[in-house]
């Protein structure tokens, strides 16, 4: 009864905007901020129920990532720090669209019963709330807090302005019983980074001649400000952060990883003065990272070093460490360590070839972090990346335990052996790189230390393989759900005949590859085409776009 009146009372303060229908989508709800308060309030309720059900701490992050600054969004972090279980997404949709407080209450009652969510004599719900720098964030965070506290006994903690991966990291740490403040996050990143720096082979410490400075575009968002903090704590990297939320500039406006990767141009504030310098770009909530370099001639396209190439760099480094481990004969079992690579159909074909030529197992999943992450978790070490720069490296618990035992055994026996160093490096990577979700801050640190380890410039790195020319287009259609795909989005199964038509078109091009899929975040169908020349990729994409239309 107390619960019922609490919910009815608070939900009457967050009535649904007329005619609005929202959907949880690939990565949570995302809309114009002005219509979001009832949605965010209801996500607060959902998070509290999820916390009761799992008897764990749950996170709510308020952000719209790379979308324009007047938008906002909300997503849930599950107990392990990953995305909300897909099994609860339909309930999220229903809850967010319930027309009246009474219907909302009824939905909650039914769901609580169906999922057997415990209320009595259990640990009360506990939710961590975070937001990015958007102006609408503060009021929306308050709406989330009211949603959470409309469940009797539930506690909401405001963690303040954070990157998305920081909040996910905190949720994971809390549920593992590890200290989980922002300071602990910085502490873990800086100490594991230092450890990797100390383990760089001395003969390789010289960078191959080129300017060692890194310049980072922070998308005018939260990531730039946090990276400045990290930089000050580390005090060893030659790094300049531009376009932070503390600077002028509008969030995601001509800046950020999404813009740089899709448009293949330098972000605002970067130009010919940076020619040859190693540059990186974060997105608005710092869960994506790409690198690039600016050519000397203005107007020329940048050299983009995208998520596929970050993945390739990580794969080369990890593979090298695994082989060092294997060289020691007394180390049995290590050969069993399974290294798996996960990409989507958007991965440049040249990257997939490159990885396969290294004898690595490459898996494809549909677009969206939840799919890639789930697949990568099947391996001892799973590396996943989307071309757009979202990705991370997952280590299985058992492999980490094994590494810990091995590095201890080795330190008592053979002090400072190559195998021991490799084990220590892998352990440090598992602490540096975010185990919950792709994280541009830990990504930058890992890229930087690996480049130093290899003695590579950005150009050397970029030459691991040469990207095939590609083109992406979007097509507005009456109903994008009429396009249904299979095999990790590489094949259209409906409408009938479309795939055959795409095949016929693609066959006309040397090294042609093309697929179409309905977007999970916009009301469009996306077309991706690849071929041996840019012109061919463009014509293939245009040709297939006409087939979809
Ligand atoms: C979301 C996804 C991202 C994906 C993108 C595709 C998460 C956290 N983010 O931003 O992984 O690449 O959607 O968008 O899952 P699209 O469906 O509009 O192409
Ligand atoms: Zn993002």
TrEMBL record:
UniProt superkingdom: Eukaryota
GO BP, one annotated term: UDP-N-acetylglucosamine biosynthetic process
Binding site for substrate: 386-388, 517-521, 526
Active-site residues (renumbered): 65 (phosphoserine intermediate)
Residue ranges of every copy of the Alpha-D-phosphohexomutase alpha/beta/alpha domain listed in the record: 54-87, 125-175
Keyword terms: Isomerase, Magnesium, Metal-binding, Phosphoprotein
Enzyme class: isomerase
Gene3D superfamilies found in the cross-reference section: Alpha-D-Glucose-1,6-Bisphosphate, subunit A, domain 3 (3.40.120.10), Alpha-D-phosphohexomutase, C-terminal domain (3.30.310.50)
Cofactor(s), by name: Mg(2+)
One Gene Ontology CC term in the entry: chloroplast
Biological pathway: Nucleotide-sugar biosynthesis; UDP-N-acetyl-alpha-D-glucosamine biosynthesis; N-acetyl-alpha-D-glucosamine 1-phosphate from alpha-D-glucosamine 6-phosphate (route I): step 2/2
Reaction(s) catalysed by this chain's protein: N-acetyl-alpha-D-glucosamine 1-phosphate = N-acetyl-D-glucosamine 6-phosphate
Residues covered by the Alpha-D-phosphohexomutase C-terminal domain: 474-546
Domain named Phosphoacetylglucosamine mutase AMG1: residues: 180-290, 306-456
EC number: 5.4.2.3
Amino acids binding Mg(2+): 65, 283, 285, 287
UniProt remark on cofactor binding: Binds 1 Mg(2+) ion per subunit.
InterPro entries: A-D-PHexomutase_a/b/a-I (IPR005844), A-D-PHexomutase_a/b/a-I/II/III (IPR016055), A-D-PHexomutase_C (IPR005843), A-D-PHexomutase_C_sf (IPR036900), AMG1_II (IPR049023), AMG1_III (IPR049022), PAGM (IPR016657)
One Gene Ontology term of the molecular function aspect: phosphoacetylglucosamine mutase activity
Functional summary from the UniProt entry: Interconverts GlcNAc-6-P and GlcNAc-1-P.
Xref: PANTHER family: PHOSPHOACETYLGLUCOSAMINE MUTASE
Family, per entry: Belongs to the phosphohexose mutase family.
Protein known as: Phosphoacetylglucosamine mutase
The organism of origin for this protein: Medicago truncatula (Barrel medic)
Protein encoded by which gene: 11429004
């Amino acid at each position: 009864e107390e619960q019922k009146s609490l919910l009815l009372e608070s939900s009457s303060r967050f009535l649904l905007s007329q005619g609005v229908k929202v959907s949880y989508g690939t990565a949570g709800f995302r809309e114009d901020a002005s219509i979001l308060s009832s949605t965010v309030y209801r996500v607060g309720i959902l998070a509290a129920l999820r916390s009761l059900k799992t008897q764990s701490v749950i996170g709510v992050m308020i952000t719209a990532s790379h979308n324009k600054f007047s938008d906002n969004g909300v997503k849930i972090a599950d107990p392990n720090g990953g995305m909300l279980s897909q099994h609860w997404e339909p309930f999220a949709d229903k809850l967010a669209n319930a027309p009246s407080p009474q219907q909302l209450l009824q939905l909650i009652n039914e769901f609580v019963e169906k999922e057997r969510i415990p209320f009595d004599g259990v640990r009360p719900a506990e939710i961590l709330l975070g937001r990015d720098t958007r102006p609408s964030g503060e009021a929306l965070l308050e709406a989330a807090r009211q949603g959470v506290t409309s469940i009797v006994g539930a506690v909401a903690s405001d963690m303040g302005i954070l990157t998305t991966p920081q909040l996910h990291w905190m949720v994971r740490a809390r549920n593992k019983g590890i200290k989980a403040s922002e300071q602990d996050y910085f502490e873990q990143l800086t100490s594991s980074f230092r450890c990797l720096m100390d383990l760089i082979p001395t003969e390789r410490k010289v960078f191959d001649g080129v300017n060692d400075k890194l310049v980072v575009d922070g998308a005018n968002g939260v990531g730039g400000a946090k990276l400045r903090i990290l930089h000050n704590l580390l005090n060893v990297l030659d790094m300049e952060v531009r376009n932070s939320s503390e600077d002028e500039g509008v969030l995601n406006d001509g800046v950020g990883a999404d813009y740089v990767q899709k448009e293949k141009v330098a972000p605002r504030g970067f130009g010919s003065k940076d020619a040859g310098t190693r540059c990186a770009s974060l997105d608005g909530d710092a869960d994506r990272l790409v690198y690039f370099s600016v050519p000397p001639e203005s107007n020329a396209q940048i050299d983009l070093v995208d998520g596929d190439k970050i993945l390739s760099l990580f794969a080369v480094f990890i593979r090298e460490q695994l082989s060092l481990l294997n060289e020691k004969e007394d180390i049995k079992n290590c050969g069993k360590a399974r290294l798996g690579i996960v990409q989507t159909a958007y991965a440049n074909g040249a990257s997939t070839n490159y990885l396969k030529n290294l004898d690595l197992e490459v898996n494809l999943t549909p677009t969206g972090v939840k799919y890639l992450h789930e697949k990568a978790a099947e391996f001892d070490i799973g590396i996943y990346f989307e071309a757009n720069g979202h990705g991370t490296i997952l280590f299985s618990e058992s492999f980490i335990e094994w590494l810990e035992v091995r590095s201890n055994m080795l330190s008592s026996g053979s002090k400072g052996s190559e195998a021991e160093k490799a084990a220590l490096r892998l352990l440090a990577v598992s602490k540096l790189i975010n185990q919950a979700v792709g994280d541009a801050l830990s990504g930058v640190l890992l890229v930087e230390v690996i480049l130093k380890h290899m003695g590579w410039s950005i150009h050397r790195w970029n030459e691991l393989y040469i990207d095939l020319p590609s083109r992406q287009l979007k097509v507005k259609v009456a109903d994008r759900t009429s396009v249904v795909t299979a095999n990790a989005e590489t094949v259209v199964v409906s409408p009938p005949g479309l795939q055959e038509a795409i095949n016929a078109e693609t066959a006309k091009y040397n090294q042609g590859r093309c697929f179409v899929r309905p977007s999970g975040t916009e009301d469009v169908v996306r077309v991706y085409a690849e071929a041996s020349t840019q012109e061919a990729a463009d014509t293939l994409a245009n040709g297939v776009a006409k087939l979809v239309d």
